[in-house]
Amino acid sequence: MYLEKIDRLRRSKLAGSYLSLSSVTALNVLFPLVLIPYLIHVLGIQGYGTLAFYQYLSQFVLVLLDFGFPLYAVPEVARRGQDVRALSCFVFQVYTIKIGLFGFVAFSVAIVLLLGKTGVVASVSPELTLGFFFVTTLNSFAPTWLFQGLERNSETVLPTLVARIVTLLATFAIIRKPSDLAAAPIPYMVGALVLLFVLGWRTRKTVFISNAWSLENIRTTFNESAQVFWSRLAVVGYVTISPILVSAAAGSVGVAVYNVCEKVIGVARVPFDTFSVAAYARFSRTYGKSEARKFAKILLGFAAVAVAIIWSVTPFAGKFMPVPGLLTVPFYLSVFSIALLPIAVHGFLGTCVLLPNGRRIELGKSVIVGLLCYLCTTACFWHLVDDRILLAIISMVMVEFGVLAARIFFSIKQKLI
């Protein structure tokens, strides 16, 4: 009876963490869907496609500045949660690395802008490039991973909501005509600044400024996080290659169509990604094979239901598309939705099976397999599929199946499931 009560308590804590993370993730994903109709109306579908293209490119910056910490730092914080000194030292090491990475990325962005100005590379918009660079920097420095590791996810819900509302209001106030495209990053920057300030303020009683500077500890933290970073970099690589491919073949309008489809799939995958993150700390403390198998099967079942719902709705969705250029979205969306099946399972296998058992290298290898699937699919179908948007989506779907196959293989090989 006593053990049952403890297990019930753990499950309720997992449920609370899941609900909090779901709220934050839903806000982050639903927020663009609220803004998209307004931005398309004001900027036009071509202007919105240009904006979306620069947002895709900014994901490279985010991954470089995050450097694997959103995954690596969570269990490290969980282990140090009861020792304020050890926790503060770790947070100091993380932000020391982040500041160094910021300097490197800022220098790289300056070089790109200089080359673009001289015509050595394709011309880029300085306003959009610099704007989203600072937006990404502010988002990266927000210590959400700290609250996840301490299982205080509920404290991030209200700040996220406030930040999104501020961004929304700022967008309505600043972006009012097509010529305001260059100012589009400003509302995002204001919202990111609000989120960083509020979360930073809430950490003041959790950590303190540490003077325990150790180059060896920083090097160790850097090397261990790098093992996760390379897999994340590969993911963002093919996530960004797709809109570049679409842009080259279908222009800004094609990027807008692709972006809308991706945002909808982003909403559909929220429950699966959030569950994996919420259960991360739990599986890091106590890992069980039978429990992992059970959750993987449940997630796959829910994913099948989600795909069925999307397929049943998309035939009628075209009637509600306010912009003629988006009338093809339902078709592409039905194809993209198939990716939810592998996404639901491989996210859990990577976060709650491989990572808690120290299999960071296998995690990276699985992403490389996904990248190879992307390249092979694109190469094989390049002359068979003239529709580049469809080709990019098919390649992305095959990525997810490749990652799933690799993670199942590594999990079975290591006898983790």
What does this structure look like?
This protein is mainly alpha-helical. It has one domain. Helices cover 82% and strands 0% of the residues. The longest helix has 65 residues. It is globular. The two termini are 28 Å apart. The N terminus is likely disordered.
Summarize the structure.
This protein has helices spanning 2-66, 69-80, 84-118, 126-141, 144-149, 157-174, 185-202, 215-268, 270-285, 289-317, 329-336, 340-354, 360-381, 388-413. The protein has 417 residues and is an all-alpha fold.
Please report the total strand number as a whole number: 0
Residue share in helix: over 70%
What portion of the residues fall into strands of 2 or more residues? under 5%
**Parts with pLDDT < 50 across at least 5 consecutive residues:** 1-11
Count of DSSP H/I helices:
14
**Radius of gyration from the alpha-carbon trace, in angstroms:** 21 Å
Q: Estimate the mean pLDDT confidence.
A: 81
Structural class: mainly alpha
Total count of domains: 1
Apparent shape: globular
Please give the largest β-sheet: none
Distance between the termini: 28 Å
